[in-house]
Amino acid sequence: MTKQFDVAVIGAGIAGLAHAIAASRRGLSVALFERSHVAQAASVRNFGMIWPIGQPAGEWYELALRSRELWLELQQQGVLDLEPCGSIHVAKHHDELDVLEEFSELGTHQVQMLKPAEVLKRAGIVNSDGLLGGMYSPTELRVDPRTASARIAAWLQASGRAECHFGTTITHVKEGHLLSSAGDRWVADRIVVCSGSDLQTLYPKCLAEADLKLCKLQMMKVQQEPISRMSPHLAGGLTLRHYASFTQCHSLAALQDRIATNHPELDRYGIHVMASPFRSGRIIMGDSHEYGDAITPFDKREIDELMLRELRKLICLPHWTVCQRWHGVYAKHPTLPVFESQPDEGVHVFVGTGGAGMTMSLGLAERSWQRWHGHSQT
User: Fold this and answer.
1) How would you classify residue 270: left for phi > 0, otherwise alpha for psi between -120 and 50, otherwise beta?
2) What is the pLDDT of residues 282-310, one digit of tens each?
3) Residue 263 sits in which domain range?
4) What is the pLDDT of residues 211-231, one digit of tens each?
5) Which end of the chain lies in a sparser environment, N or C, as judged by fewer CB atoms within 10 Å?
6) 151-165 pLDDT, tens per residue?
7) Residue 314: which CATH number?
8) End-to-end C-alpha distance for the chain, whole angstroms
9) Is residue 65 part of a domain?
10) Phi/psi of residue 83, each to 5°?
11) How many domains does the chain have?
12) What contacts 24+ positions apart, CB below 8 Å, involve 144-148?
């Protein structure tokens, strides 16, 4: 007998998990499908940063803050562990300090400016050479990206909120029926496709017409001695030219011009440096951005060396032995925080959260379910 559900979610990365959570909170029966035996794509290959500070003022920033609330609810329910670590953008050049001061004066985000001594007090690993100051935001969270998705899926399964089918590739969807590569079938009233960077298996025409672009990023990890207190996420001045929240700053143009003139290699590979220090001593660092046809399976040593060069300007470490290197690939829409479409009756495509999947998915999925099924939750 073909098993029937109210909702089927295809993809158990953070976007798919967010939809499974939102549907189950409305008392709906949920089946969650993932082609891998564990989530292993973009949702586990990131900094573990919930990063509202990167979202532009208005609706997107408010959605990021709502996502933050939903992450904290998961912690309160014992699903996973979070650190309310906040973040510091570090300024080493006057044009970087100008952007941070202008951004702070706009009053659109919850931030405060810090003197150099205050930066070092909050984050002792910051490199003090040339330090002009920084900007603190209290809204950022840290989660272990390598365990968060698995823990959420295990909670959904154990609590009866969803029936999880890992190692199950859905190859065909038609009129509420789902077919796997093994020939198994399920039926659902509503199907949500959260296929991440896979733009070919399901609804390739729809996704091709969406102008989605794939992005590859390189990252690395170093292991230091455990630290006794929580450290904020750290971002260098290069980051100011990457996140949409800072585009409202007129002073950004001077910073962008300096980088383009003096360090075109950083623009060539979309390099901006960030570091997430865990209490265990693990520090996740990166990253870079290569798009479309520039993406290959092979990582570039030049990118790693450039990132390490810039990271040494941002932080000081007892040693710089890199114990792991990896890359991730995600789909990004050029203008929207996520691409949503309804290619068939009862089918919703939800992809393209870009590098903000951890930050935005819970809030974006909740917004979708408020539109589809109302506000009531259980």
Assistant:
1) left
2) 999 999 999 999 999 999 999 999 999 99
3) 87-138+213-332
4) 999 999 999 999 999 988 899
5) N
6) 999 999 999 999 999
7) 3.30.9.10
8) 29
9) no
10) -120, 120
11) 2
12) 144/48, 144/80, 144/81, 144/278, 145/43, 145/44, 145/45, 145/46, 145/47, 145/48, 145/284, 145/358, 146/44, 147/80, 148/14, 148/43, 148/48, 148/80
Claim to verify: residue 267 and residue 151 sit in the same structural domain:
no
Task: Specify whether 224 is located in the same domain as 306.
Answer: yes
- Stretch 318-345: mean pLDDT, rounded? 94
Contacts 24+ apart (CB under 8 A), 69-74: 70/21, 70/362, 70/363, 70/366, 71/141, 71/143, 71/362, 72/141, 74/152, 74/155
Q: Is residue 82 part of a domain?
A: no
Q: Is residue 350 part of a domain?
A: yes
| 125's tokens | 């690993």
Q: Is the pLDDT assigned to residue 21 strictly greater than 60?
A: yes
CB 44 within 8 A of CB 145: yes
Mean pLDDT for the chain overall: 95
Q: Binning pLDDT at 50, 70 and 90, where does residue 96 land?
A: very high
